[in-house]
Amino acid sequence: MIDFPLQEARIRDLQQWMETGEQTSVSLTSLYMQRIAEIDQDGPMLRSVIELNPDAIYMATQMDQERAQGHVRSELHGIPVLIKDNINTGDHMYTSAGSLALADSFAPEDAFLVNQLRNAGAVILGKTNLTEMANFMAFNMQNGYSARGGQTLNPYGPGRLDVGGSSAGSGAAVAANLCAVAVGTETSGSILNPSGKNSLVGIKPTLGLISRTGIVPITYTQDTAGPMARNVEDAAILLSALTGKDEQDVSTQISPTPALDYTDYLDPEGLRGARIGINRAFEQQCSDEEKSIIEASIEAMYHAGAVIIEHTDLPEIVSEDMTVLLYEFKSALNSYLSTLGAHSRIRTLQDMIDYNHLHHQDALKYGQEILIKAQYETSGTLTEAKYIQARLNNWRQAREEGIDRLLQEHQLDAIFTPSWHTDAPAVGGYPAIIVPAGYRRDGMPFGISFMSTAYKEPDLIRIAYAFEKTVPARRSPML
User: Which one of the listed residues 48, 96, 166, 170 is annotated catalytic?
Assistant: First the structure.
């Protein structure tokens, strides 16, 4: 395969090339489309892209015309971006969440975050595959599988290594250089997990920093979108574009005002003097190789000037996460489906279950046990005592007794933890950022994450950027 000219290119590289005329938005878009043809739909067949945007070239042409007239909207102007296929676009692309039941579903309008991307001048290149229904359909579903999109593969070991989920397509696509950056969504680990397994930077933001309007939901209390990128700088650029107050999503009304430019916090000395608490509560679940990466990362932070604080283990959450998700899912999904309009054949969770049952040979490779439990074991009114207690217990354990307690008791700037520990920030609605830290001998990437309390994304970006400069671990997959 001919060397790909955009390999590992950063957003600011692409901007410079467009400014000098070395590339245009049209040429960038065309190169990424060709790359998708060669290795996503052919070659190793990663199956990370579920649909291309037929308007992408026209969008790129418009951005080139605006640039020629001296108008550049933002650092995302003309930059090709992929978004997860559970995020609405009011255009010629479907929004299916990977489900055959929604395979012909056109959203009536853009999700709020998609409108933000368009306003920033980004080119919506297409949509990415995912674990079907954001991995809230069957308990044994394979990461990266959807009935509509098939099985997404990890570019570091196609067919051999787990790709992570549920934002598998976004993770594999960015890792394989099929786009500049991508948007994923997370309920519990769905950005952090595939970012770790694809050697990426992923940001799971504070709940409400990015609008949830127009995203196929699981839960009211944990769902969020977030950036997935090959480096912290690009993730910060994308995060800046995605945020904003949305009148239709009350959770955004308490986010910082004015909206921040997160690139202001890209400090290569960000570890110097930072108090980093080391969460070893789950280290016994790591392999010896992974423990070595963790220790090397801690040592590197120490030499970069960080103050390392031990004995700051996060207590195990007596997880009632699944209870909350089950009870909120029926209400949230029915509310979303009601927005699709009278033309939609799927108007309720029951409709989806019935469709899947009728087309079970194609639609139910792994079953739909979670959908059935949510439909028949919950009322959808969120009045059950079991649900209310679980929700309150989750927040207390993750926030007051967990992250907030450790931050306050030890005056921490962030808590350091292995990549796959995602429960506390997910349940608490708190931010976390994952950064590549190394690789196992079998080629599987391994990342470490930093977490903090609400709206501390600037601190996490500062620390993660300095960590990335200190431990430049990422390398491209050998495709």
Answer: 166
